[in-house]
Design a protein that fits this description.
Blueprint: H1 5-8, H2 28-41, E1 49-55, E2 61-67, E3 70-71, E4 76-81, H3 85-92, E5 95-102, E6 107-117, H4 120-129, H5 132-140, H6 150-163, E7 176-190, E8 198-205, E9 208-214
Antiparallel strand pairs: 1-2, 1-5, 3-4, 4-7, 5-6, 6-7, 7-8, 8-9
Helix pairs in contact: 5-6
Length: 216
Amino acid sequence: MSLLPHIAAIRKNYALQSLSESSVAPEPVAQFNAWMEEALASEVDEPTAMVLSTVNGSGRPSARVVLLKAVTAEGFVFFTNYESRKGHDLQENPFAALTFFWPELERQVRVEGTVQKVDAAISDEYFHSRPVGSQIGAWASPQSRPISSREELEKADNAYTEQFADLEVIPRPAHWGGFIVAPETIEFWQGRPNRLHDRIVYEKQGATWHLKRLAP
């Protein structure tokens, strides 16, 4: 194996902030919300973007970027096409990992936990809060499936636009809705000088969260 020199030489020495056991909240969702508020206030790019990692029934992993839409005491919520690759993965193997990275703050958050669909009423509420074009797009796109061309997708979009033109409320397709990741482990990473980063992890045992520091 040979490394590309211009890639291998890329590095950044992190030095903005620190993270300690005494500085974090007693439970991780509160700590996550505090960091999310700082990310929003700092106007980082795409603060709600997260890498969703799944594993299918054959043990093969895949990952993609999705958007966080809610955080509750129960977990982290996102929405998708249930018939997409990630949708099938999560129904075959209901576990997932989420990764947030805010380079402007030199921070990363990793979440691991179990996954289930949210209540239909929650999916309905969010679906109808979306722009009309996005609602129609959920009908038009057979997400993750091969299509013959861009024109096929645009033709489907136009067809559904015409079909729903006279409706005040576009129905939510049954194949589209939300998932919630119920966390079992949440790790907070703060970049530090010389790669001696701070890593604080919460692990859930029963109903109790336990806190510990990890080596970088």
